[in-house]
Structure formats: C-alpha cells, structure tokens
Amino acid sequence: MAKPPATPPTATPTMLRRVNAGKVLGVLNHAQVMTGTSLIEATGLTRATVHAVCNDLISMGWVVELDPGRTSVGRPSRRFEFNGRAGYVLGIDIGAAKTTVLVSDLRGETVAKAGRSAAGVKTAGERTGIVHATVVEALTSAGISDAQVLAAGAGVAAPVDRDGNILVDDEFWRRFDSGLAARLTELHGWPVLLENDANLAALGEHWRGEARNVDDLVVLLAGERFGSGLMDSGRLLHGSRGGAGEMVFLKLLEGVGDTHGIARIAREEGTRAAADPSVPTALTELAADGEVTAEQVFSAAAAGDKVALGILEDIAARTARVVATLGILFNPELVVLGGAVAEAAAALLPDLDKQLAGYTSTPPRVAVSSLGDAIVSVGAVRHALNYVEQNALDLELGCRPS
After folding, report:
1. Local structure of 13: helix, strand or coil
2. How much is the pLDDT for 335?
3. Each residue of 40-77: pLDDT tens digit?
4. H/E segment holding residue 104
5. Is the pTM value of this prediction over 0.85?
6. Where would I find the HTH iclR-type domain in this sequence (predicted)?
7. Cα–Cα distance between 56 and 214 in angstroms, integer?
C-alpha cells in the first residue's frame, strides 16, 4: 500500500518572521537609505510587517534608523539603512611569496590593509605564523577586534574543493597547508572560507573590476605561474576536486610547454639577455646582482629597447595560445589578465588580439585587471561577504547595540 504524501511543514509565525527579516535585510543590504514605504514596495510585505521586522533588525544591530527629517504634510516616514559597520570581514591572499590582508566593512569598503613577505617559508607552522601576524597587523591598524569579525575569505594558489580541502597532488600545491584554515579559526574565533586564488580573482573582477556585468568570464592570473578562475553564467566552476581551471595542461600545449607566467618569463628572458655581452640592450645597465625584473623589461620595451620588445613579442605569442585555448574550451565573453603584472601587460593586448583571431573563430575580448595585486584579496572579501549575507540571521554581531 502506497504511503500518503508527507504533510508539508506548517509555516509558523517564527518561521515567517525569519523569512520576512531575510527579505527586508536583503533589500537594504543592496540599497542606500529606504523609507518604510519603499521597503513595502520592494518586498511586497504589509506596512505592519515591514516595521515589525525593521524593529527586530535594529535590535539585532543589522539596521539603523535615521532621523526622518521634516515634512510639511502628515507624519514623516521612518527611514532605514543597512548597518555597514555591524561587523567586518577579512580578505586574505596567502601567496607563495607574500600574504596580504584586507579588512572591509559589510558594504565592501576597505578600512585597513597589511602585507608581509613569506619568502623563505618552509613549514606549515611558519606560514600560519606569517598569516596570523599579518591579520593582527591589519586588525590593529583598523582598530577592530576579533569579536567584530564575522568571517574571512582566504585564497591559496592550489585547487580547493567545495568543502575547503586543498588538493596536494602537485609539488607546488603542497606548499599550502590544508590545516591552515582550522588553525586560524582556533587563533581568532571566526570562520575561514578557503578558496583557490584564481577563483577569488574571478569573484573580485566580477564584483569590482573589469568584468562587472559579465557573467561568462575567465580571469587569468599571469604572474609567476598561470592560473585561471572560471565563471559560467555568474557561477564559479570548481570541478569534482576543485581542479577546474588549473593550468597543468599547459605542459602539453605546443608553443607553451609549462605553467610559467608572464612575470617569470619576462624576468628570466630579460636576465638572460642582460648577461650576454654580445646583446646590445638597456637591460644590461638595469640588471641588479645579475637579475632583471619583469617591470624593468616592460619599461625598457616602452622606451623602445629592441631586445625588450622582442621578449614581449614572444610573451604575447605564448600568452595568445593560452588565452585561445581557454577561449575554445570555455567560450567566455571576456578574459581578464590579472596579478601583479596586469597593468604592464596592457602592452601585450594589441599583439594578443591580432593572434587570437588566427586561433579561434570566436576569440574572447581580452582586458587587463584594474585591481592590481589586490585582485585575490578583493575577491576574498566578496567571498566572505557572500557568506555573511547567506547566514546573517544566524550570526552574533560583535558590534551589537547594548
């Protein structure tokens, strides 16, 4: 005998109040000051419900009520605003060579930044120590305590699955400790949301960069090592183990052969040219301790140095193959070149555009990021804000009014 269909759960007053609170908070979070009337129109709720919910949100600390001002007719409308200083989030970029921490309010505005070198770090404990010290420096600079932090997004240059676990199949990926997030939570008390750095770069570009209003996107981190974050219809792609967008396949790609990024190629080729006495180039004079930086190669090319220009031509040809492959596989509308060399990489765009048309009939538009070396930490802030928005009514505010 077939079982009767399960009775759907009854909507209790408490449940309805919570749903309504989430609806009102969601509207206020993405708006400026709103009156009770405008909230009624935006949510479809009754006046009594809107005012009751706003009173609850005010007592919780999520909403503030502003002075209604004066009006010549009738009683002035109540005016409400999302409390962007109800708490704070952190955006942490845990790079192989440097850790950067942004402290942001709940409107996404940066209130402090700190960075520390991680050069020479060899153990998990040392890396945790560097990240912890950078966090403390940033919070101290902002005048904010751990109790006021609601969440932290953190990016690492390794695949991270949907549960926040780091894939360590590659030697480079093993430099990042899979237990770091848990230890930071133990030290500070707030949740740490671990994610791949290129995925966070895609979030950052989509939120505050060149890819606003672009939902089919690839962000190519192109510094020391290529890495890509993929977004399809506004949704990040992870893959079964977090490996979507990893660039190890470049070792198999003709004309590329490895995962070395633009900065590394420029530095190595520039240093090689500067060390050859038979090569007339301004890079020889720029070399310090025998090494040329990527920035010096780009600067020399901008000044017309033929050797530096040749290096950039080679880099553009190589990068065009990388971008074309991503374009063919994922068909994005836009590919953004990001990372520390993004601004200088604008010099590559004319050559890139010319060569892409020869590789694919649907070449993506290519742009350089305006976020500079903050691209991952900005995306980490967005990742943390997403968590706060989804869990707001379950979070205890350290800034809660007495």
Report:
1. helix
2. 97
3. 999 999 999 999 999 999 999 999 999 876 655 667 78
4. strand 98-105
5. yes
6. 21-64
7. 36
